[in-house]
Design a protein that fits this description.
The protein has 342 residues and is of the alpha/beta class. It is 43% helix and 17% strand. It has helices at 22-35, 47-52, 85-97, 109-119, 146-167, 182-191, 199-204, 209-223, 240-252, 272-291, 310-315, 322-332; strands at 9-14, 39-43, 55-58, 102-107, 125-130, 170-175, 195-197, 228-233, 256-260, 296-301, 304-309. Helix 1 runs parallel beside helix 10 (272-291) and helix 5 (146-167) crosses helix 6 (182-191). The structure holds adenosine-5'-triphosphate. Adenosine-5'-triphosphate binds at residues 15-17, 47, 78-79, 82-83, 107-111, 113-114, 117, 132, 134. This is 6-phosphofructokinase.
Length: 342
């Protein structure tokens, strides 16, 4: 490993929507930094903490037994003001005054845009760690928090299925993922949902209420009367799950109930996969700092740690798994009858 300069002090922050595993990533950053003889200063409330000089030293003793908790012990925030040039300049001056050589930003694409913005005004190294339940970043097989969010959504869908089945009802379960349907697709597949309404599919061909009703009728005709569970990504239907359920009841007399999972998807114990991914990526971020690189995300591809240019993480597309989509749509829940080949 070639070290370009002796890094002595690094900063770390968690930014944007909190994600299960952020604490595990923070712990890994602190333990790895300590291992390599670096000091860590944590900024509270994301970029807001950089502007307010709200920081605290972090030593291994400060991160004991935090990896099993969701949320983030150093707090996260959205900070609109950070988008201004003056704010980035202020943050740069604050980092310099603290003699910080490198900054680790744990967050999603917005947080990485913030990191890039800061880098135009600050000479230190900046490394991103992908911490978001959305899984919408290019360059890493998964983001920290995604696996846990899918697990929670699947668990809720299983429970909904019990009651939906008992009453032969239609349920619409609203999940997070306003811009990307990863949680919707994976939880629908894992729980055997009959239909998904995802941003990627809506962009291609928006569903109409009559198409939804036809699919419910067709499913009932094939399998007999029973439950029908639909996974709806947030903001993909005017008025969301509640409005869609009301419409189906009022216009088509279908017994239908909405269920909004909301922020439940961000809490509880992070899954083993998220704890392990966060641990690996936190250490990888520190090792990338030692290599002298900057403006990259510490990612994971096919089990290997990689460095991906920060800009690529939001400029390049991370598409949904087309095979999962095909299986869910064409094989498990076909809209049209597939002609038999023999
Ligand atoms: P998630 O999508 O999981 O909520 P995120 O990191 O994408 O996470 P955002 O709210 O989009 O969350 O961004 C977090 C913060 O990053 C913003 O509140 C802001 O402080 C900063 N940020 C976002 N976009 C920019 C930008 N273009 N320039 C500077 N800073 C930005």
């Amino acid at each position: 490993m070639s070290e370009s300069k002796q890094i002595q002090r690094i900063g770390v922050l968690t930014s944007g929507g909190d994600a299960p595993g952020m604490n595990a990533a923070l712990r890994a950053v602190v333990l790895a930094a300590d291992h390599y003889g670096m000091e860590v200063i944590a900024f509270r409330h994301g970029y807001q903490g950089l502007l307010d000089n709200d920081h605290t030293p972090m030593k291994p003793a400060d991160v004991m037994h935090i990896l099993q908790y969701s949320g983030t012990v150093i707090k996260s925030a959205r900070c609109q003001r950070f988008k201004e040039v003056e704010a980035a300049q202020e943050a740069a001056a604050n980092l310099d005054a603290l003699n910080i050589d490198a900054l680790v930003v744990i967050g999603g694409d917005g947080s990485f845009r913030g990191a890039e913005h800061l880098s135009a005004h600050w000479g230190g190294q900046i490394i991103g760690v992908p911490g978001t339940i959305d899984n919408d970043l290019f360059g890493t097989d998964a983001t920290i928090g995604y696996a846990t969010a899918v697990h929670i959504a699947m668990d809720a869908l299983d429970k909904i299925r019990d009651t939906a089945d008992a009453m032969d009802r239609v349920f619409i379960v609203e999940v997070m993922g306003r811009y990307a349907g990863f949680i919707g697709l994976s939880s629908a597949m894992a729980a055997g949902a009959e239909r998904m309404i995802l941003p990627e599919l809506q962009k291609e061909k928006p569903l109409t209420i009559s198409t939804i009703v036809k699919h419910i009728e067709r499913t009932n005709a094939i399998r007999g009367e029973g439950s029908y569970v639909m996974v709806l990504s947030e903001h993909q239907w005017p008025g969301g799950a509640v409005a869609l359920a009301e419409q189906l009841e009022a216009e088509y007399h279908l017994p239908c109930r909405p269920c909004l999972l909301g922020h439940i998807q961000r809490g509880g114990p992070p899954s083993p996969a998220d704890r392990i991914l966060a641990s690996e990526l936190g250490v990888h971020a520190i090792e990338l700092i030692r290599e002298g690189v900057t403006k990259v995300m510490a990612g994971m591809q096919a089990g290997n740690p990689v460095a991906v240019p920060l800009r690529d993480t939001w400029e390049k597309k991370n598409p949904l798994d087309s095979n999962l989509l095909r299986i869910q749509h064409e094989i498990f829940n076909p809209v049209k009858k597939t002609p038999r080949t023999h």
